[in-house]
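REQUEST ID: PR-0412
SUBMITTED BY: lab tech R.K.
PRIORITY: routine
TASK: structure prediction, single protein chain
INPUT:
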Amino acid sequence: MNRKSDIEIAQAAKMRHIGEIADVAGIDEKYIEQYGNYKAKIDCALLAELAGRPDGKLVLVTAITPTPAGEGKTTTTVGLADALRKIGKKSAVALREPSLGPVFGVKGGAAGGGYAQVVPMEDINLHFTGDFHAIGAANNLLAAMLDNHIFQSNSLGVDTRRITWKRAVDMNDRQLRFITDGLGGRVNGVPREDGFDITVASEVMAVLCLSKDIDDLKSRLSRIIVAYTRDEKPITAEMLNAAGAMTALLKDALKPNLVQTLEGTPAFIHGGPFANIAHGCNSIIATKMAIKLGEYAITEAGFGADLGAEKFLDIKCRVAGLTPSATVIVATVRALKHHGGVPKAELSIENPAALEKGLPNLLQHAENVTKVFGLPAVVALNRFPTDSEAELKLVRDRCGELGVNVALSEVWDKGGDGGIELAKEVVRICEAPNRFAQSYHLDIPIEEKLDAIARKIYRADGVDLTPEAKKQCKQLTELGFDKMPVCMAKTQYSFSDNASLLGAPKDFRVTVRNLKVSAGAGFIVALTGDIMTMPGLPKVPAAEKIDVDNTGRISGLF
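STATUS: complete
OUTPUT:
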């Protein structure tokens, strides 16, 4: 049987006018700024009007450690929201926006899949409403103003060897990781080493997603540190008088985007920081709108629960004052067998022994969610036709030993109808006792926070700081940044900082090689392993398969 591709399914769908979707969500038309017939920005002033309304239940969708087999986290998020509506619950979705880098690189799209998608799929995956372009422009304005200050007078005493601010572009382009610019004579600037980050790694992205309103946005932008003086004093965007102009570029990007699922469920899609190098969650404003407008707000955090969920719970929930009601941990039998050592080509073959070997990865994530963070959880097991009954029973039995139920999910094939079992379990556990707590306290030293995450979440034997990281830790403490949460920049492919260690590795330590403060975002970034803030394209990029015909119809996104 030939299965339709994601883009074919999306293009065949009959979308409802965005005004109808806003009406379903309960949004007055005065707050709607339309971008054509199927997209709209929602004025942030809506939140003030909704302030007295009780909050809905916040449900976080996370996953096991990612594998080449795929898990389907966004698909599950969308399908769950549709399924909740099928059983009579008012739901709304809050998701991140896709980055052009992964769209043209490996993933080819990030709007869900099958019959559990957000639409218009092509728009969402490409330029959408221009938010990422605005973020890149604000980032690069700050870079230009910094270099102009150095060229014109450098009255602030910027040490050009200690510039920490990079330029940004929303594309995987390894050629731009390390560059030399300002060449060609005096009129062309001051020669120095420079580089680019992908836009989703820019601190401006994190700032936008963690800002509560436009005043908070401007305040956070002003605190961004771009460089240091020779005597190691920080230089901020405020000192360059850049925050006002940056805010002007971002005033519309701050407004959440409203679209719809294939089944007409309202979906807020806004912001998109990477989860392995930033905090990996959509914006606070979009999440709060979903909470106020739905009985159930379904959101997700990037990659596995050791990255996205940990940062959602330890960083975003602190900043926004959020308390989730439940978590959904997405897994597949195929992915768990990969964690058990099975190569991708053999994942369709029944192999309970390999599944047993890979299950500790899922169980560790489940234990972290329920015991470290104190939240009720359900495992959403995306079912494949090749999954045997014995394998499905094994997953149920092992999760049951932790007191966590498993719900089979078939939302890719069946949309909301394929998520009814999951939706009913989510409703049930949302009423369960909630003992939500973060994994560390803010008043402990930086190194102790790092150690708490490494031991409690990764199950490492501890954390080691390189001499350079120790020096940075001391400096950040002296500058008064030690009370901030920490954002671990780590490989998404392992609980450890070594991507080759699958499953639930033991007897390892995590090495932190660099610490830097994102003073505007309000957290300290700890770089472990070989984390790139500018990815590269693969040997055969997804862009090679993307095309458009003379009617404007796009193909190749998946």
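NOTES: The chain is about 35% helix and 20% strand.
REVIEWED BY: pending
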